[in-house]
Each structure stands twice: as C-alpha cells, then as structure tokens.
C-alpha cells in the first residue's frame, strides 16, 4: 500500500459517505431505519445499499480520474466491512447501548428533542456526533483494507 493510495481512497470514501448519508438517503429511510421490526431493518438495509453504491461509484470515479487501480476483492471486502458497521450503528439502539456502556450516554442524549420543548436537533445532537464519528472511524479501517 502506498500512502497516496490510502489517502486518496480515504478521501473518496469520506466524500461519498457525507454525500450518501445526507443527500442519497431518503427521508423515510432516515426516519424509520432505527425503528424495531422488519420495517426498520429493511429501511436501514436500503439506506446501507444506496450508501455502499455511492461509495463504490466514488471509488470508480477515483480510479477513472487518477488511473489508480484498486484490487476488486479488496474493494468488495472493504465495502462489506463498512456496510456492516454502518448498518449496526444506524439501527440506533446498538450505538445508543454502546454509548451508555462506555459512559457516553449523557453525550448521546445531548440536544435530543424533549416533549413540550422547541429544541433544535438539526443544530446537532450528541447522537449525531457519535454516529458520524463511528462511521468515519470505520471509513479509516475500510480505506486500510482497500488500499492494502
């Protein structure tokens, strides 16, 4: 692996993640992907599928624009690891439980809407910050797998 390949792959994945998690994901997926049951699981799976396709498209664009050659098996393995970690976190109860277990429960709940309050969670919540930092950490691991 070269440092340049790793850096380029990470940058492509980071850009694709931000785009796919915020622009490609549908409103319905965002609202129900963390709910219990089949409906929530399917919404989360659809979100992860479109997000993974977005990341694959960005990696292909990287290859076409730069001439870089990524090994297809490494790309598949990396994207599979990333998809699994993304699905796990986006089911929400899993990430909330982890945050609680490691003493980050109060931060996870920071900024969450409360009944009878005019809170502004769109300005950021602890849950959102922990969610995105989880995903970015796994993007690093994914880039290592793909660039190796």
Account of the 3D structure:
This protein is about 75% helix and about 0% strand. With about 150 residues, it is mainly alpha-helical. It has a domain at about 30-95 and about 135-148. Helix 1 runs antiparallel to helix 7 and helix 3 (about 35-65) packs antiparallel against helix 4. The longest helix has 30 residues, at about 35-65. The chain is globular and about 55 Å long. The model has no long low-confidence stretch (mean pLDDT about 90).
Radius of gyration from the alpha-carbon trace, in angstroms? 16 Å
The number of E-state strands comes to 0
Helix content: over 70%
Number of helices: 7
- Characterize the biggest β-sheet: none
Low-confidence stretches: none
Overall mean pLDDT score?
A: 92
Secondary-structure map:
Elements: H1 3-24, H2 27-32, H3 37-66, H4 72-90, H5 93-101, H6 105-109, H7 126-147
Helix pairs in contact: 1-3, 1-7, 3-4, 4-7
What are the main properties of this structure?
148 residues, mainly alpha
In short:
The protein contains seven helices and no strands. With 148 residues, the protein is mainly alpha-helical.
């Amino acid at each position: 692996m070269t440092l340049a390949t790793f850096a380029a792959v990470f940058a492509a994945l980071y850009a694709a993640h931000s785009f796919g998690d915020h622009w490609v994901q549908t409103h319905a997926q965002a609202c129900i992907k963390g709910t219990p049951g089949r409906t929530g699981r399917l919404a989360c799976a659809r979100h992860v599928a479109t997000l993974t396709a977005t990341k694959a498209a960005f990696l292909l664009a990287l290859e076409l624009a730069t001439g870089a050659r990524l090994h297809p098996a490494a790309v598949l393995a990396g994207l599979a690891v990333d998809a699994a970690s993304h699905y796990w976190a986006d089911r929400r109860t899993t990430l909330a439980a982890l945050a609680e277990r490691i003493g980050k429960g109060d931060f996870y709940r920071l900024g969450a809407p409360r009944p009878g309050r005019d809170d502004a969670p769109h300005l950021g919540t602890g849950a959102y910050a922990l969610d995105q930092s989880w995903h970015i950490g796994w993007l690093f691991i994914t880039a290592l797998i793909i660039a190796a």
